[in-house]
Recover the amino acids of this structure.
């Protein structure tokens, strides 16, 4: 034996070494495979993601374009406010994540520290409002109502407020010039939603998370033009979010400006007169219900008869669009949308629909002539008309004997139209409807009823023409409910339900008779009727109503005029139109509206009118008043307001007095006339992008006298090379201003306001 150990390995150790080698090789193989997968197969995707993680963008919102009236007065513009913002990136570099700085800032701003801290936290699924929903790399606004003193404290002690800025910024303002609110026409803004960002990302106008979007009115209709293009600066950041360099930058492009056909002075008077008419109606006694009229809502439209351009459009109840600026509070939102709000956000000029009553008779008159009835023939205007045991009465049971269709319009004789409609119903086969020509229903469609007018405002409603097809569709949708609740010998409502169950799809005689005077299931909107009466005024052309007049780029190099467009002609001959025109003039001189136009200079400015009082089951009557001159048509309606001439008549007369400068004794004073002829030119604009807009106060006469010295550019005068600038004026008090009243009684209130 020897003392020298053996040189061979222990078999057990050798096995362990082999196992370790296999494991090492396996790990290396796995790592290599994973690296191949990440770098080769998925390399492009991860490279793109990594690039995105290290490039962040800061958005500089574009200045939104102004909305101006026809003379250049700002209806919606931007005011400068001191905005205090915090840089979240800078705050997170601090040991306490900036809590001490935010607490000190809260003391300067007079806010609670918790409120300030909540504003700079980022929104996610678990974080409720308030929180920041934009990019974490851009300044987060704390308040947009800082005072000059607060801003100076922050800026002069910048070392105590690292990451905090106090800078002037442009914020939306609804100026209400001369107290012309114009709320439903203008609309309002609110932040863009995630869904909208997603839907618009592949369009030519994508949204940024910082964008404010038009939600109604002109703000929504012309949002793309008004919004402009936000500026974006892209920064390179490390994995801790620290900025290490600037990648690229795109400058912000301000939005275009919208010039409208609205005249702020006329708008102010239209709003005031509508409101006063409703207040006056609430003092009147309703014999049918034994209470005073509720007059719960209303609308008025002032339209250029020869173009369809809207000079004024008021809806009541109304609201202050400034409530939405900077975010609406929960309490204000409930006031505007709750069950007891009466929905002031609705623009009842285009979204309020009701039975038109007798202002619909211009449609029935043209239908009767088209059906072969002589306009100048004799028709019995008896006090009542009976069909199948049911008696249909004239208003206050008036009896005028044999009259022609013109006189039937003047005195608004229901029974003349009852007879004509009933006779045509029988010719059309009665309830069977065989070989029905349906002149009365076709005429309504040809006048543009039952469909949108096409006005450049969103969410317009169509109204309703209850023809045979509508009857069939409506019956199929509701017959099960009618049959379930109807009783042959039950209450009035149950009897109606029973009749509808059995024959609700049939055109009954009573349906045709009620329809002929704008009752029954017929529904129209004020904008539809203003379009119709404008067409009668201008010779028969149906113009598409419009509010926008021109879009002007912020740099002044582009002026895009919005020209008037027609969408058809009235289905009447020139002879019939002329006879209807004369009859409607007779309404204002010796018909149902004559008492409202006493002293009117008819020889100088021929006035035409039609009154309407529509009955609504379960409610008080709806007041309608439709009028026109050679220049304008004005239509007003008041829900549950009483008669047409009684409730709406005085207000419409006062608007005309203001337009033409008509005094109590019928004289015309050009110096007091706000707009004796429609505005045909665009406001003159300067080469620096500002507008030479006339000043407007609460005294429309002074405004009109100032206008005499104003200069205007031709509406097609792009050669002027001017533009409308973004208005940067006003203060916080203006945006909170509410409309005030004018002194004076109902008879003289507008004249006193003008003198």
């Amino acid at each position: 034996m020897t003392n020298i150990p053996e040189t061979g390995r222990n078999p057990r150790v050798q096995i362990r070494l082999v196992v370790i080698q296999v494991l090492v090789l396996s790990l290396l193989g796995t790592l290599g495979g994973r690296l191949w997968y990440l770098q080769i197969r998925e390399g492009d995707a991860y490279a793109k993601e990594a690039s995105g993680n290290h490039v962040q963008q800061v958005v500089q919102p574009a200045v939104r374009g102004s909305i101006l009236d026809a003379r250049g007065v700002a209806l919606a513009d931007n005011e400068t406010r001191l905005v205090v913002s915090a840089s979240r990136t800078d705050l997170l570099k601090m040991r306490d994540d900036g809590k001490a700085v935010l607490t000190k800032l809260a003391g300067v701003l007079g806010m609670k520290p918790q409120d300030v801290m909540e504003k700079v936290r980022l929104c996610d699924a678990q974080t409720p409002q308030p929180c920041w929903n934009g990019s974490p790399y851009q300044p987060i606004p704390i308040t947009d109502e800082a005072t000059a003193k607060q801003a100076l404290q922050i800026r002069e002690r910048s070392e105590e407020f690292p990451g905090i800025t106090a800078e002037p910024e442009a914020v939306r303002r609804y100026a209400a010039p001369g107290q012309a609110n114009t709320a439903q026409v203008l609309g309002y803004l609110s932040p863009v939603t995630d869904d909208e960002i997603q839907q618009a990302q592949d369009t030519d106008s994508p949204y940024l998370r910082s964008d404010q979007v038009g939600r109604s009115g002109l703000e929504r209709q012309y949002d793309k033009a008004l919004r402009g293009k936000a500026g974006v600066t892209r920064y390179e950041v490390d994995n801790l979010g620290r900025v290490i360099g600037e990648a690229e930058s795109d400058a912000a492009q301000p939005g275009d400006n919208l010039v409208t056909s609205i005249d702020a002075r006329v708008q102010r008077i239209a709003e005031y007169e509508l409101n006063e008419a409703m207040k006056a109606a609430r003092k009147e006694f309703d014999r049918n219900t034994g209470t005073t009229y509720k007059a719960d809502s209303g609308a008025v439209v002032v339209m250029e008869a020869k173009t369809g351009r809207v000079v004024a459009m008021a809806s009541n109840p109304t609201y202050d669009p400034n409530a939405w600026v900077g975010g609406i509070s929960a309490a204000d939102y409930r006031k505007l949308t709750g069950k007891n709000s009466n929905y002031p956000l609705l623009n009842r000029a285009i979204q309020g629909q009701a039975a038109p009553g007798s202002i619909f008779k211009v449609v029935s008159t043209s239908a009767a002539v088209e059906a072969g009835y002589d306009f100048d023939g004799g028709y019995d205007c008896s006090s009542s008309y009976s069909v199948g045991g049911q008696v249909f009465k004239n208003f206050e049971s008036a009896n005028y004997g044999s009259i022609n269709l013109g006189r039937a319009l003047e005195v608004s004789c229901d029974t003349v139209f009852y007879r004509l409609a009933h006779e045509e119903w029988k010719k059309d086969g009665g309830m069977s409807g065989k070989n029905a020509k349906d002149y009365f229903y076709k005429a309504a469609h040809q006048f543009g009823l039952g469909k949108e007018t096409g006005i450049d405002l969103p969410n317009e409603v169509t109204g309703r023409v209850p023809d045979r097809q509508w009857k069939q569709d409506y019956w199929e949708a509701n017959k099960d409910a009618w049959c379930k609740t109807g009783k042959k010998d039950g209450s009035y409502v149950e009897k109606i339900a029973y009749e509808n169950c059995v024959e609700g799809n049939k055109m009954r005689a009573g349906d045709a008779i009620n329809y002929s005077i704008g009752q029954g299931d017929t529904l129209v909107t004020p904008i539809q009727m203003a379009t119709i009466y404008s067409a009668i005024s201008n010779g028969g052309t149906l113009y598409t109503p419009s509010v926008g007049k021109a879009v002007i780029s912020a740099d002044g190099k582009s002026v895009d005029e919005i020209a008037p467009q027609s969408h058809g002609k009235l289905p009447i001959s020139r002879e019939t139109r002329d006879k209807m025109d004369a009859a409607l003039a007779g309404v204002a001189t010796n018909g149902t509206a004559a008492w409202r136009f006493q002293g009117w200079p008819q020889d100088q400015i021929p006035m035409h009118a039609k009154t309407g009082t529509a009955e609504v089951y379960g409610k008080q009557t709806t007041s309608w008043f439709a009028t026109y001159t050679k220049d304008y048509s004005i239509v007003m309606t008041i829900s549950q307001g009483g008669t047409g001439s009684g409730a709406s008549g005085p207000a419409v007369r006062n608007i005309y007095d203001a337009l033409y400068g008509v005094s109590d004794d019928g004289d015309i004073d050009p110096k007091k006339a706000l707009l004796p002829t429609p505005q045909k030119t665009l406001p003159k604009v300067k080469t620096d992008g500002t507008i030479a807009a006339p000043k407007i106060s609460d005294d429309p006469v002074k405004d009109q006298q100032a206008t005499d010295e104003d200069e205007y550019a031709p509406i097609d005068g792009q050669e002027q090379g001017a533009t409308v600038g973004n208005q940067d004026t006003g203060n916080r008090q203006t945006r909170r201003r509410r409309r005030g009243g004018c002194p004076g009684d109902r008879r003289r209130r507008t004249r006193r306001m003008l003198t």
